[in-house]
Write a structure and sequence with these properties.
The chain is mostly helical. The protein is built from 23 helices and 5 strands. The two termini are 41 Å apart. The mean pLDDT is 83.
Amino acid sequence: MEPGPASWAGIGGQCPPTESAVPALERLLTIATADQGDAVTLTDTILGELTTAGLSPEKIISQVYDGASLMSGKHGGVQKLLQQKLDREIPYVHCYNHQLHLVVIHALAVEKAVTDFFSVCNMLYKFCRKPTVAILYKGETLKRLLDQRWTGHFATVSVILKSFDDLSTLLREITCNRAFGVDLRIEATGLLQSMSEPSFKFIAEMVHKILAYLDPPNKMLQSEDMDLLTGLQLVCSACTCLENIRTETEFQAILAHCDSVTKRPSKRKRSQNTAFADYVVEDISTHVDTNEETELRRIFYSCIDSVCGEMKDRFGKNNCQLMEALKALDPVQGTFLDVSKVKPLLDLTKTPALDSEFEVACNFLRAQMEESSPPDGEKWTMKQILKQFHRPLETMPTVLTAFKHGLTFGASTASCENSFSTLKNVFTEHRQSMLHQRKANLIHLAFEKDLTRKFRDEWKDMVLRRFHTIHRRRLPLY
């Protein structure tokens, strides 16, 4: 579930895989409204919509929200109230996409130089949107920084690096041309001075490299079939890659890209005061010039350490017992199908863990994985095992249930949030008078495109028959 504009809420669910539907897919259940925005009302709305849709709340095994206290509060949040109403434990997962955004925002804000860099980027975006400037600008369109999503930072830095020469040329032309107003020329001069700083191009290259490693996990976490274990593995892989670039070689490689930037004129070397020649000087309280390369090196290591530290801190606070259970379902782990590890996962739905079934399944699957490989040639995963050995696992229902639980755990609220983008496309100026139910139905049809397409072929006959039986029709459809 994800709160939306004007007391709207998108409620999505991840359906467990079945024989005909592997892997698990996330679906938008409904677009609901609430008279009030408090946690109690939202909790009742969730339970009411699930019951209306014919789904039992007793089947809920996890809940994924953003980090707002209204949803994630440990005492009065929706996640806590839902557990109290159902009188059982339902693990709460903080949306991984939202956590990645917080990692970038908090980690990069540690360095004042990086904060100033993004301030200049924002000023460049506003400057190039002015009509008199937009006519002259020939580079790629600058992107707006988004407070809600760090992808705006990545897009902004990418465009600035690609259009760095075009931006510099534009600012020089405006600075030297008196046909433009004084205010515009002064602003262009200041922006050109900021872009000519050696640190500007370096920080742009550094930030782009860091965010490039976080972009693939961010995109993959938005897929409908993403599970919690795979999401955690993606984030950990990105963190490992960032730790691997924390080397002097990588620093020098980034620094080499900044050679074309105009260097600041060298300052006169400071000399020691001759008045102190006859004294033993222990300390002199004066300004000490910091070498430019030394300062850039400090910023480089500091930013990488901050991002990696934030990632380990945020993604390391998961329910350890639950994560151990999910890892025990991963074929590459040494604890694969260890019944003592998987038991907490089965306890969420009060499913008994039978030692005999897990022991037989473990020996069978290990033998099969040694003799064969997945159809796509990659390594074995939970999805591959469930897809390849679904028939044999049906004879071991508790093991099959454990695999289904593992694939049903969500990691992101991206699908629910995407429904709000669909709302903007559906809610045009000609549809202002629609009631909520019709509006919600249109959004559902527009969002679930793969299901909507089936109305044209395989579901067409069924839909026409149901429509025909609702009321008497003048024209017989059948």
